[in-house]
UniProtKB/TrEMBL annotation:
Pfam families xref list: NACHT, TPR_10, TPR_12
Residue ranges of the region described as Disordered: 356-399
InterPro entries: NACHT_NTPase, NLR-like, P-loop_NTPase, TPR-like_helical_dom_sf
Skewed-composition ranges (Basic residues): 356-374
Gene3D superfamilies linked: P-loop containing nucleotide triphosphate hydrolases, Tetratricopeptide repeat domain
Top-level taxon of origin: Eukaryota
Limits of the NACHT domain: 74-240
Name the record gives this protein: TPR-like protein
Composition bias, Basic and acidic residues: 381-394
């Protein structure tokens, strides 16, 4: 057999010939010269940040964990929340406190950068054999760290996707096998050593990635800054004098996210003097597209991975793409949640509502119909295949939902409240999600789903639904900003806004009532036409909103339109027509046109709907109020008593309508006491005591049920003050009247008729207390404002003008 030929190190020439046997060649690199081991140093690609702002106890936690032998910690939070900045600061503090400690930085965004970082470490510490192209660089660094006599800190930055650390690499049996070979033996994670002298700090957006590297107890959540921290960071980065209040407002709008704050400061600094903090904030609030434009601008970040994006919107959208690729159902859940208000997102509105329903075929509908008839006849058993499949689908959906929630929580996109039933999101994450949906042509799909889910759950504004309305109200207001294009969805959208306006009216939120009702009306009129009953309901709701706001002439115009349209369509005796008449009568009463109000209310009462029908009781109550305003207390009292007793039985003593009836009766008693005092023929004190007892009861119940600043509660307080006034308890009356006037001024506005009534009442009290000069000044102001908002014929304006003239003549 022919002998093999081997070319050794000394063979430097070229040899050629005819060779019949096998040839083995061995190439030997010149032996490496021994290198002097370097002294420990800090090997990270970023300088220390002189503008660093302390983040509470976060670094204390990191130091506590990493000071232990063989320790690992992870900083987990949204992209742009400042994880890497914290890691940089910890690295420099470690080096300062312990100069004999090595500090290394590893870019861990992917396998290639991870490997390059390990090669950089090998070069820095001069590991023998590192230049051998067949060397396993991971094993070399691992072994050096394990054998090191000095302490070391290894920072793994941006481990957002840990899968490359969990997959296997080539064998490391010492035979020089290339790390790119096909024989897969060992995961990269195993090259992160456990040894007494070392500690590892991980930064990641993904809690699941952190759990693959660090014990759960050593994971540290990084939240956005607090107000003081954000203010300090912004001022350091801006390096210009700006109003602190403006900066605090901007920081809140940016949700205290460090990267967003640095972006904004850089933009303002670069644009100065043409842009200030106040101007930036104004532009930011102008529209969603303006927000996106500002947040998309990249700002130079010297201490941020050069491959990372310096725009917070783009930073998050990279995570969205990751989610869509690896967990599309979780991406769908995030898409749906991006339309809600940022807080209190109920599970009931998102669980099971993430998929757009497919239209069933005629064949499937026939099969389903047959199955349904059989089940209706014979019922279901546990062995029923359909029942089993439905149970299985339900169980599967529950598991999938929990998995998706877990995935979103791991990426820090959502939070869960303490009870676990509602979720929260950062509004900027929601904005970034919606812009991502636009870019992918998915916005309308998920908007339709959001509106459909909300429409299915948001109830009407009756008292018994208030708890549900309250929980969903903020999400209905959020829907205002998401007008759809699909016609069927527009109908659902208008329904949501109408019901939300109904609830807003009951809680006395005038601004919300006007805004929601107006939008619902515009949508319904365009979709259904003016004469459709749904549209007329919306017109009536807008009129209610105007009435609440004291815009009585506008309310009258709309209520007349509704009444006339319903008369023609439904007939004069239809309950909806009668409701329109009652509402118009209420407007006449507000305008001081008591005779016109009485005429309509008498007509309404004649229509027979049943003695205890809600509409009958409402018309009786309205007529009773009108009689009281006309001074016809003998007619008002029996009506008010009957309505109150009936409502107590049917609705309960605490129902808002019952409380209104009690308040009306108390007003009647008070007025009867006043008239009896004038005639000197009636034991007026007994009536006032009865009035006081009822008014206190109503006021306290309304405070609990409606809140201290609800318009109805304020009316109760004003009524009680009037009773105190009649009883000559001036100080008690003044205390309530001042409180009512100030609250109405804040809630309703300085020119609202109810606010002006409070001013007039307080002026009368001051006059009774002997504070004539103050009373004249206040009444003069009241008259001037009433002349702006009321017609000259209004009784309230006439009475205040007469009082002012008398007082000035004294």
């Amino acid at each position: 057999m022919d002998s093999p030929i081997t070319f050794g190190d000394a063979n430097a020439g070229f040899q050629a010939g005819i060779i019949n046997g096998p040839v083995n060649t061995a190439f030997h690199l010149p032996p490496e010269r021994p290198e002097t081991p370097p002294s420990p140093s800090i090997v990270i690609p970023f300088a220390r940040d002189a503008d660093f702002v302390e983040r509470g106890t976060t670094l204390d936690q990191v130091e506590r964990i990493c000071s232990s032998p063989d320790s690992r910690a992870a900083l987990v939070g949204l992209g742009g929340v400042g994880k890497s900045q914290l890691a940089i600061e910890h690295a420099y503090r470690t080096r300062k406190q312990s100069p004999e400690t090595w500090v290394f930085w590893v870019h861990a965004g992917n396998a290639a950068r991870f490997e390059q970082s390990f090669r950089d470490i090998a070069d820095q510490v001069k590991i023998a054999g590192r230049q051998d192209p067949q060397a396993n660089i991971f094993k070399l660094v691992h072994d050096w760290l394990c054998d090191s006599r000095q302490r070391w800190l290894l920072v793994l930055d941006n481990v957002d996707d840990a899968r490359f650390l969990l997959s296997r690499l080539a064998n490391d049996d010492g035979q020089g096998q290339s790390t790119n070979a096909q024989v897969i033996r060992k995961p990269l994670r195993e090259y992160l050593p456990h040894c007494e002298r070392g500690s590892i700090l991980v930064t990641t957006r993904n809690k699941e990635a952190a759990r693959n590297l660090v014990e759960q107890r050593d994971i540290i959540g990084v939240e956005p800054m607090d107000e003081a921290q954000a203010l300090a960071l912004f001022k350091k980065k801006l390096e210009a004098e700006e109003d602190d209040d403006d900066i605090v407002e901007l920081a809140a709008a940016l949700e205290y996210m460090p990267l967003a704050l640095v972006q904004a400061a850089a933009y303002i600094w670069q644009s100065a003097p043409r842009c200030s903090v106040a101007q930036y904030l104004e532009e930011f609030r102008r529209s969603e597209s303006e927000k996106t434009s500002l947040l998309n601008r990249e700002a130079g970040q010297l201490r941020r991975d050069p491959e990372a994006k310096n725009s917070i919107i783009v930073t998050w959208q990279i995570s969205f793409e990751y989610l869509r690729h690896y967990n599309p159902t979780a991406a769908g859940l995030l898409s749906l949640m991006s339309f809600f208000d940022r807080q209190g997102i109920p599970e009931t509105l998102i669980h099971g509502g993430r998929r757009v329903k497919r239209a069933s075929t005629a064949s499937n509908r026939r099969k389903k119909s047959t199955r349904q008839r059989i089940k209706a006849l014979f019922g279901r058993t546990k062995s029923d295949p359909d029942a089993q499949r439905e149970r299985s689908e339900s169980d599967s959906d529950g598991v999938n939902f929990e998995n998706d929630v877990g995935a979103l929580r791991d990426l820090c996109f959502i939070s869960v409240n303490t009870e676990g039933a509602t979720f929260g999101m950062h509004s900027l994450v929601q904005l970034a999600t919606r812009r991502w949906l636009i870019a992918n042509g998915q916005l309308e799909r998920w908007k339709d789903q959001f509106i459909g889910n909300l429409c299915a759950k948001f109830p009407t504004g009756q008292y018994e639904n208030w708890a549900d309305c309250q929980a969903l109200f903020v999400h209905a207001k959020a829907a205002l900003e998401h007008q759809p294009y699909n016609e069927s969805t527009i109908a659902d959208w208008a329904t949501v806004l109408y019901r939300a306006a109904w609830y807003a009216e009951t809680i006395g939120s005038i601004t919300d009532t006007v805004k929601l009702a107006t939008k619902a009306l515009q949508a319904r009129e365009k979709l259904l036409g003016y004469k459709h009953e749904d549209t007329l309901q919306s017109v009536a709701m807008v009129a209610d909103a105007y009435s609440l706001a004291g815009r009585w002439d506008e309310a009258e115009k709309l209520r007349k339109q509704v009444r006339e349209t319903r008369k023609k369509k439904l007939g004069a005796d239809h309950p909806s027509t009668l409701t329109s008449m009652a509402n118009l009568a209420a407007t006449y009463r507000d305008q001081g046109r008591w005779d016109a109000a009485e005429e309509l209310e008498v007509q309404t009462r004649k229509k027979k709907l049943g003695a205890d029908h809600p509409s009958t009781l409402t018309s009786m109550a309205n007529l009773g109020v009108t009689y009281s305003m006309q001074g016809k207390e003998d007619k008002a009292e029996p009506l008010n008593v009957q309505v109150m007793e009936t409502r107590k039985k049917k609705l309960g003593a605490d129902h808002p309508d019952t409380l209104t009836s009690m308040a009306n009766l108390a007003s009647t008693y008070r007025n009867q006491g006043r008239m009896a005092n004038l005639a000197a023929t009636y034991q007026n004190q007994g009536r006032w005591d009865a009035a006081e007892e009822l008014e206190v009861q109503v006021m306290e119940t309304r405070k609990k049920k409606l809140g201290a600043d609800h318009p109805d509660t304020l009316t109760s307080m004003a009524n009680l003050a009037s009773t105190y006034w009649n009883q000559e308890q001036w100080d008690a009356a003044e205390e309530l009247e001042v409180q009512v006037m100030e609250t109405r001024r804040k809630k309703l506005g300085a020119d609202h008729p109810s606010t002006l009534t409070s001013m007039a009442n307080l002026a009368f009290t001051w006059k009774a207390q002997g504070r004539s000069a103050e009373a004249v000044v206040l009444m003069r102001q009241c008259v001037q404002q009433r002349q702006r908002v009321l017609k000259a014929s209004h009784p309230d304006l006439k009475s205040s003008l007469a009082a002012l003239e008398n007082w000035e003549a004294e």
